[in-house]
Automatic annotation (TrEMBL):
Pathway(s) this gene product operates in, as recorded in its UniProt entry: Protein modification; protein ubiquitination
Top-level lineage group: Eukaryota
Family: Belongs to the Tdpoz family.
CDD domains membership: MATH
Domain MATH: 16-141
Matching InterPro entries: BACK_BPM_SPOP, BPM1-6, BTB/POZ_dom, MATH/TRAF_dom, SKP1/BTB/POZ_sf, TRAF-like
Protein name: Uncharacterized protein
Gene: gb08367
PROSITE patterns, sorted: BTB (PS50097), MATH (PS50144)
Length: 360
């Protein structure tokens, strides 16, 4: 993580400052949660020292759809500091995305005091913001150097109001909506089975769904309420159901095939569907499962081809590492998957040979 471009100024009874973070190697840190935060270098605004703490994987398991940030006071001070914070996610051109704001003056009293905010993971991981496996955050802090009496009263009143934490049940509510199908306005026909869904939710989660569904709606009629029927080819019903479940809940369905040891073919097909509908997080989930427990001599060759076809570098590296063992490679060479590599992917075969030759 590289920090640069810190600046501050004092005007009108307040000190303002900004700090620009450049967070690199996102693919290596995106699963880090509460127990493994990433801290910025300290910086000064208003005579106080501050630090930014990032939880790329959220605070809790159910928060994985959020990239969480905390603005922390880094030093103890004789008097409280009152500060307002804005965070801006920058796109590749350096333009500010909508701010994530701590909307009113907060009281910072001791080292470690801080208040959190977040950006949705799908925005951070969008092509506009995630460039070369890195993204940038600009933080603005305004520290009051002259707090009026009425401001102090406002702060005391705000502190006296106990606001309960927001329940983490959005995924459950959307999952219930998917199961019930209430208000659904699109029907998918998949190998003789029918799935109903809500095109606005699909469009928000997948640019491919967005293009397909709204184009189909324009072709059918100008009625925004008209239901759309779409035929889906080359995807099995079981896989398409898992894809839709992930769209609504950001998790895999609690079925037998999606347990800790799922069926490798189903996960392979789900990864293909995730790539087809441009859902990078689902691709990562499938990669993680295949890297963790689904590599064996029967499936290693087909998994390597799949990773090569769909640009899954982490899975591809895991397959290469698995095949560097001579005994494993010899067993894999007897499979139909390895024959496919020989006949259809000569470049991949050369890469594999190179890896085996350089193996210790």
């Amino acid at each position: 993580m590289i920090e640069f471009d810190s600046a501050s100024a004092i005007a009108g009874g307040s000190a303002t400052g900004s700090h620009l973070l450049h967070i690199e190697g996102y693919s290596h840190i995106q699963f880090l949660t509460e127990d493994k935060p990433i801290d910025s270098q300290p910086f000064d605004v208003g005579g106080r020292t501050w630090r930014i703490r990032c939880h790329p994987g959220g605070i809790h398991t159910l928060d994985f759809h959020q990239v969480v940030f905390f603005i922390l006071l880094d030093d103890s001070i004789p008097e409280p500091a009152f500060a307002q914070v804005n965070l801006f996610l920058l796109d590749r051109a350096g333009n500010e995305m909508p701010a994530s704001q701590i909307p009113f003056m907060r009281k910072y009293s001791f080292a470690g005091d801080g208040f959190g905010t977040f950006f949705m993971r799908q925005i951070v991981e969008s092509p506009e913001c995630l460039v070369n496996d890195s993204f940038r955050i600009r933080v603005e802090i305004s520290v009051s150097t002259r707090v009026r009496t009425e401001t102090r009263r406002t702060m005391s009143a705000a502190a006296a109001v106990a606001v309960p934490a927001a329940p983490l049940d959005l995924q459950r509510h959307l999952g219930d909506l998917f199961v019930a199908g209430e208000g659904a306005d699109v029907t998918f026909l998949v190998a003789g089975e029918t799935f109903r869904a809500h095109r606005c939710i699909l469009a928000a989660r997948s640019p491919v769904f967005k293009a397909e569904l709204f184009e189909a709606m324009r072709q059918k009629s100008n009625d925004a309420a008209a239901e759309v029927c779409v035929r889906v080819y080359d995807v099995e019903p079981q896989v398409f159901n898992a894809l839709l479940h992930f769209v609504y809940t950001d998790s895999l369905p609690p079925s037998e095939i999606m347990t800790d040891e799922p069926d490798v073919v189903t996960v392979q097909r789900l990864l293909e569907a995730a790539d087809r509908y441009d859902m990078p997080r689902l691709k990562l989930v499938c990669e993680e499962k295949m890297c963790g427990c689904l590599l064996d001599t029967r499936t290693a060759a087909t998994t390597l081809v799949l990773a090569h076809q769909h640009r899954c570098n982490r899975l591809k590296n895991a397959c290469m590492e698995f095949l560097r063992c001579p005994q494993v490679l010899q067993a894999v060479m007897a499979t139909d998957g390895f024959e496919l590599i020989i006949t259809s992917y000569p470049t991949l075969l050369k890469e594999l040979i190179s890896q085996v030759i350089t193996a210790p």
